[in-house]
Design goal:
The chain is α/β, with parallel strands linked by helices and about 425 residues long. Among the domains are: about 180 residues, NadA-like (Rossmann fold), CATH 3.40.50; about 80 residues, Rossmann fold, CATH 3.40.50.10800. The chain has 19 helices and 15 strands. Strands 7-6-8-10-9 form a 5-stranded parallel β-sheet, sandwiched between helices. A 4-stranded parallel β-sheet has the order 3-2-4-5, sandwiched between helices. It has a 4-stranded parallel β-sheet with strand order 12-11-13-14, covered by helices on one side. Helix 4 packs parallel to helix 18. The longest helix has 16 residues. The N and C termini lie far apart (about 50 Å). The structure holds iron/sulfur cluster. Iron/sulfur cluster binds next to helix 8. Iron/sulfur cluster (SF4) binds next to helix 8. This is Quinolinate synthase. It is found in: Cytoplasm. It is an enzyme of class 2 (transferase). InterPro entries: NadA (IPR003473), NadA_sf (IPR036094), Quinolinate_synth_A_type3 (IPR023515).
């Protein structure tokens, strides 16, 4: 794995005046343990302006030997620990993780691919997930009880997942049931609402949807899952990403006038009762601060400068950006589109910078650039640094498990039900599912 495309190296070039462009925060060059010492926050990067929940996990200070080690020493120690642990450990690296960490991963992929990969490695006693908190929880849901899932920096949360808090979702559900209590009284087989949650949500939210007849989706299967939900319910409550929900529902032919936003800070989500009754999709007021940065103006500029450009964006981008792009799809769709291009092509990509720069380095036959010219990685993914990985691996060598993420059985059971429904869902035509 090359490290020449690393965002960290690009940031250093920018700060040294050797590269054009700019970064959203010069604090990205600080060591993550400096950020760990501060008041809780997401840290520098795309989510730095988002409000972090008071209960968000904190990362304690790791020993000085890891904070003060050079990159070369950390590299030597990580490789030595991995070699000694052998099959006892599996290291997972998310597509958005920086190359300084991804180079040690046994598997690189999106959150669900990684959790599934970990599930197949039953001989591994420990799964080190170099991603964010909800991903480690999902790996714990899918792994065996004997396996420990480790998040190298507990402060690596996800601002989007944190936007749907379980208490707010329970409160929302109560309000919806009050408004819709008369539905179903006439023997209608359809439930008033089916809750659907994006994989990027806490285990508590996955458990909630599992308990209420709902289902999990990924950015790859969201339309299949929505069709599944409309076969069972009159409307969908889509958590927590409004953009994935809106983009998916719109592509399925559901009008914008049939969608309503649910703002958890306002009574009835900021709606009147009739709006809730008329809605087919209720969109939770969540978003990804990485994908919110992409704009139609960036696409217009890319087209003006590169007339043959192929613009592909992630469906977590706002609707007008998805509409202006040539294609929209998950990280895996983006990766496969580039791998499948047989002629040299110019790609403008709307997703996290670490993945875009890695794809550009892996495919020099194409010109690949990020739509957003400002280097601004996912804040929380960036909280993981080789120092934390060395610390967790060497703890395992001593027989210690640090930073374990485990989901309590009362949450895990219904969350697994919601995941199993997703795995069993088959594409279905929407026409047969309209209310
Ligand atoms: S890219 Fe967005 S959704 Fe993904 S982990 Fe970062 S903040 Fe969360």
């Amino acid at each position: 794995m090359t490290t020449t495309a690393s965002v960290e190296l690009t940031l250093r070039d920018i700060s040294a005046g050797a590269a054009a462009g700019s970064s959203c925060s010069t604090r990205l060059l600080d060591a993550p343990w400096d950020v760990d010492r501060e008041d809780p926050g997401y840290g520098p990067g795309a989510s730095m302006a988002d409000a972090i929940p008071a209960v968000a996990p904190r990362q304690g200070e790791i020993p000085a030997e890891y904070r003060e080690a050079s990159a070369e020493e950390l590299d030597r120690r990580i490789r030595a620990a991995k070699a000694e642990l052998g099959d006892r450990v599996v290291v997972l690296g998310h597509f958005y993780q920086r190359d300084e960490v991804v180079q040690y991963a046994d598997y690189v992929g999106d959150s669900f691919q990684l959790a599934t990969a970990a599930k197949a490695r039953t001989e591994a006693e420990a799964i080190i997930f170099c991603g964010v908190h909800f991903m480690a929880e999902t790996a714990d849901l899918l792994s065996t009880p004997e396996q420990a899932v480790i998040l190298p920096n507990l402060a690596a949360g996800c601002s989007m997942a944190d936007m749907a808090d379980i208490d707010q979702v329970e409160e929302c559900w109560e309000q919806l049931m009050e408004v819709l209590e008369d539905e179903g009284a006439d023997g209608d087989a359809l439930a008033p609402v089916i809750p659907v949650t994006y994989m990027n949500s806490s285990a508590a939210i996955k458990g909630f949807v599992g308990r209420h007849g709902g289902i999990v989706c990924t950015s790859s299967n969201a339309s299949t899952v929505l069709a599944w939900a409309f076969e069972r319910g009159r409307r969908v409550l889509f958590l927590p990403d409004q953009h994935l929900g809106r983009n998916t529902a719109k592509a399925m032919g559901i009008g914008l006038d049939e969608m309503a936003m649910w703002n958890p800070r306002r009574p009835l989500g900021g709606n009147d009762e009739q709006t809730v009754r008329d809605a087919r999709v209720l969109l939770w007021h969540g978003f990804c601060s990485v994908h919110k940065r992409f704009t139609v103006a960036q696409i217009d500029k890319a087209r003006a400068e590169h007339p043959d450009v192929r613009v592909i964006v992630h469906p977590e981008c706002p609707m007008e950006v998805v509409d202006a792009a040539d294609e929209a799809g998950s990280t895996d769709v983006i990766r496969r589109a580039i791998e499948g291009a047989t002629e040299p092509t110019t790609f403008a990509i709307g997703t996290e910078i670490n993945l875009v720069q890695r794809l550009a380095a892996q495919h020099p036959q194409h010109e690949i650039f990020c739509l957003d010219p400002v280097v601004c990685p996912c804040s929380t993914m960036y909280r993981i640094h080789p120092g934390y990985l060395a610390w967790t691996l060497e703890a395992l060598l001593r027989g210690e498990v640090v930073n374990q993420v485990s989901v309590s059985p009362d949450v895990a059971e219904p969350a697994r039900v919601a995941l199993e429904r997703m795995l069993a869902a088959k594409p279905a035509p929407l026409a047969g599912s309209a209310r």
